[in-house]
Amino acid sequence: MSRIYDVAVIGAGVIGMSILRELTRYRLKVCSLEKMEDVAEGASKANSGIVHAGYDPIEGTKKARFNVEGNNIFADVCNELDVEYKMIGSLVVAFDDHEINVLEELLQRGKRNGVKGLEIKGQEWVFANEPNLSRNIKAALFAPYSGITNPYKLTVALFENSIQNGADVIFGFEVCKIEKDGDYFVVHSADSRFIKTRVLINCAGVHADEISKMAGARLFKIYPRRGQYYILDKPEKMPVARVIFQVPTEKGKGILVTPTVDGNVLVGPNSEYIDSKDDTATTQEGLDEVFEKARKVLPNLSKRDVITIFSGIRATPDTHDFIIEEDEDVKNFINVAGIESPGLTSSVAIGRYIAEFVADKLNAKRNLNFNPYREDIKRFSELSDEEREEMIKLHPTFGNIVCRCELVSEYEIVEAIKRGAKTLDSIKRRTRAGMGRCQGGFCLPRVMDILSRELKIDKTQITKFGKNSYILTEKRWED
Amino acid sequence: MEKYKVVVIGGGPAGLAAALESFKNLDDKKVLIIERDKFLGGILNQCIHPGFGLHYFKEELTGPEYAHRFIEQVMENQIEYLTETHVIEITPQKEIVAVNKKGLKRIKADSIVLAMGCRERTRGAIITLGTRPAGIFTAGQAQRFINIEGYRIGKKAVIVGSGDIGLIMARRLTLEGIEVKAVVEIMPYSTGLRRNIVQCLNDFGIPLLLSHKVTKIHGKYRVEGVTIAKVDSQLKEIPSTERFIECDTVLFSVGLIPENELSKKAGIVLDMRTGGPVVDNTFSTSQKGIFACGNVLHVHDLVDNVTLEAQTAGRYAAMYSQHPELFENNIHINIVAKEGIRYVVPQKLNKNFVQPFVLRFRVDNFYKDAIVTISNAGKILMKIKKSILTPGEMESIEISQKILSQLDFSNDIVVSLQNI
Ligand SMILES: Cc1cc2nc3c(=O)[nH]c(=O)nc-3n(C[C@H](O)[C@H](O)[C@H](O)COP(=O)(O)OP(=O)(O)OC[C@H]3O[C@@H](n4cnc5c(N)ncnc54)[C@H](O)[C@@H]3O)c2cc1C
Ligand SMILES: Cc1cc2nc3c(=O)[nH]c(=O)nc-3n(C[C@H](O)[C@H](O)[C@H](O)COP(=O)(O)OP(=O)(O)OC[C@H]3O[C@@H](n4cnc5c(N)ncnc54)[C@H](O)[C@@H]3O)c2cc1C
């Protein structure tokens, strides 16, 4: 295989996919190279999903700039891509005078960063609006423009829209060597494929320092910093209406409690530097820390409703700011590295900035056929009975419920497969089949039936998320 | 809107028995069973081991055989049923919304029997630490893959949970050529039947590790092993006892939870301890004309008990649909679980139906030589000696006419347990 591109993006996380989509606004031949079998397999699937207002980052940093820009355009982009986004606002709660002083600092910093609507609210307001919070809270910083989104669905939507607009995404392509051949980079995969590209963009998340080194570009270091979470079952009544943060420490924004756009409760993350970049294990100490701190804010939080636990790994750079720049020595090699929080919020703004920069550089013309719109799969759970009836008439499989907890129909699963899902996790992220309270106990075998039928593969070939993650090991008899 | 006298939701053993019994007791035999799976029979279809029907049929049958006997009767009587049809809503007015590939159906029932069974607790629900690779199954999933679809799910397995299901799966995996390294049980006792410990573990030399828990799952893509540790009496792990077991499969069999999403939406009052609806001795839930039985009501160990319970529920559902006036002005007295008793079903006695019934309950711990008493207004009405009581085994007591005749209806019935 040999393909020649104008621009190649390494890593199909939310950053890589934002850049890819924005690049398709220009007449460029672009691709993304991803080592896994799907998009959003790194930090982009395991984070808090918060669209931050922008009072946290120190003024003048790239973090501050792209956070605020990102927040400003987030709603529009989610609208174009049919992705859930709810501007529910956030509170940073303070328990004592010292913490109230920090709120004041955040308020001032937010103002300098250009964040609108920030206000410090007293106890009365807090309890009137968030009656379940601890009575020990003295005050809170209210940021009305903070919001929540679904990070992996956003990444999927960016991916689908990029494909619609002519981009390639090459999966299972683990970049292991980068050479220069005249004006081109030759990018090799671990399984001996390669592509050529004029511009190479590094969005390899926690592994971005290794990629930069491979390209002979600037040396920096990425430290993996893990955060662990609990997901709680959809409650009858949400315990909190907004994203509830605690006063940040030098370790980060601290543990939060928030509704998710899908109606679950998310609690986490803690912050711990770890040795291995891919060690997504959850630990007792980590989860205990999360629970204790969350309890401080929400005293009646109970582990009884936990449906799963998980962790995500932040790509913390030794530069203390996002690294977004063309390399000084290796021309046309661009690092977009160290994108820790608020990377999700910043993603679209970073995408625009990089695409403009590259288009300028390559003198690219506008792609007049660019279509910014992408439609999500129609979801059984979200329609009225009348709409459901209509849909079943058009597509009988819409009446076949596969995932009972989340009411996901066969139609939705087939649709996800048509749009590129190949593994159980990729179906889970796109449709929620297996994300409910029974965690796939019921639907996993059924989803496998559909995958096997649609992809025309034996069930022993189906994986949870690529590589060696097979579910079944051997077929014992034929029907 | 289609109309039925009785609609049964769920076509497992509970639903089948309830439907048959309703049918027998109705003049206008409009009964409908709605089942979301392809076949009737419920979870029994994948339980291909023997051990079913010993009490009800006095014969040892496999799950599918047991179910088949009821399915046959449903066919013979031409009771209507819909398969591959999912009920998505029931209302207090007893309207049912169900979907299938043909469309969305609205059905009006005079009475409804809930028989939706239960779901399995998962790895996440018991907060098992470590990574999230492939190779982690619930017992039910494993059963389906192995018994119905004919796949092998791994080579070396560790089973978490030593109830009957965990034990039976240990034998099943072994017979399929999968090496079971251990059955790990956090409690100091197994909640499974003695018989199953002997026949499923001892006969195959599979170690049962009591007072142990899986503290961590390892592996990036597929499971590579688990860390286990001993636990103390508080169920906290003892640090120095950690040990790694290499395996590619972890099977969780850590309890079942009644499937009560529909009941919740219909505003039916649930019992925190059983996880199912609160019912009276007619198996009526808090919504008049909606009855419940089988695993959706409380988790049973033996399908025979499910059948008996479902027959009673079916009979009262038929009665309600023909004579709802009999259920007007219901007055209840509570049946309360006290010391040593985790829960009782039914939780209430209906004053309109003071008839003998079976009280089922579970104890909250392992007991040797104890007395279960049933009392009312400070008076002991009944005493039963038991040499062994375990939380894993459901107990039943007949509440006879004689006991009922002594009741003081202004006081609760109390069930409790005393050590001798
Ligand atoms: C715990 C946690 C909480 C967070 N909370 C928030 C939040 O609330 N709000 C917010 O705005 N941000 C948040 N973030 C930050 C946000 O998640 C990240 O900034 C964002 O997901 C980074 O995206 P990415 O595309 O750079 O990285 P990733 O999503 O990690 O993508 C990198 C991709 O590169 C691929 N890759 C790596 N090496 C190679 C190779 N050699 N060849 C090919 N492909 C390769 C990986 O497989 C991966 O798909 C959080 C992050 C974490 C971890
Ligand atoms: C591994 C294992 C071993 C066992 N061993 C034994 C044994 O040796 N001896 C013994 O006596 N018992 C045994 N049992 C227990 C016995 O199988 C159960 O007690 C019995 O099946 C419960 O019956 P049920 O009808 O309540 O539930 P189920 O059999 O679960 O039936 C419920 C039905 O309702 C349907 N349903 C649910 N929701 C909906 C909806 N919304 N719309 C339509 N349909 C719906 C389901 O698809 C299902 O078919 C075992 C169980 C297991 C899992």
Protein model, in words:
The complex is a heterodimer of chains A (479) and B (420). Chain A is α+β, with helices and mostly antiparallel strands and 479 residues long. Helix content of chain A is 31%, strand content 23%. Chain A is built from 12 helices and 23 strands. Chain A has helices at residues 14-23, 62-81, 97-113, 123-129, 151-164, 208-214, 284-297, 343-361, 385-394, 410-418, 424-431, 444-455, and strands spanning 2-10, 30-33, 50-51, 85-86, 90-94, 119-122, 139-143, 147-149, 168-170, 175-181, 184-189, 194-202, 222-232, 243-246, 256-259, 265-268, 272-273, 306-317, 323-326, 333-337, 401-403, 408-409, 474-475. In chain A, strands 1, 2, 9, 10, 11, 12, 19 and 20 form an 8-stranded mixed beta sheet that branches. In chain A, strands 13, 15, 16, 17 and 18 form a 5-stranded antiparallel beta sheet that branches. In chain A, a hairpin with a 5-residue loop joins strand 15 (256-259) and strand 16 (265-268). Chain A is globular, with a radius of gyration of 23 Å. The model of chain A has no long low-confidence stretch (mean pLDDT 96). Chain B is of the alpha/beta class and 420 residues long. Chain B is built from 8 helices and 28 strands. In chain B, a hairpin with a 4-residue loop joins strand 6 and strand 7. Chain B is globular. At the A-B interface, strand 18, helix 9 and strand 23 of A face strand 7, helix 3, strand 11 and strand 15 of B. One flavin-adenine dinucleotide (FAD) binds at residues 9-15, 34-37, 42-44, 47, 51-52, 86-87, 115-117, 139-140, 143, 164-165, 168, 259, 262, 294-296, 300, 302-304, 306 of chain B. One flavin-adenine dinucleotide (FAD) is lined by residues 10-16, 33-36, 41-44, 47-50, 52, 173-175, 203-207, 211, 227, 269, 312-314, 339-345 of chain A.
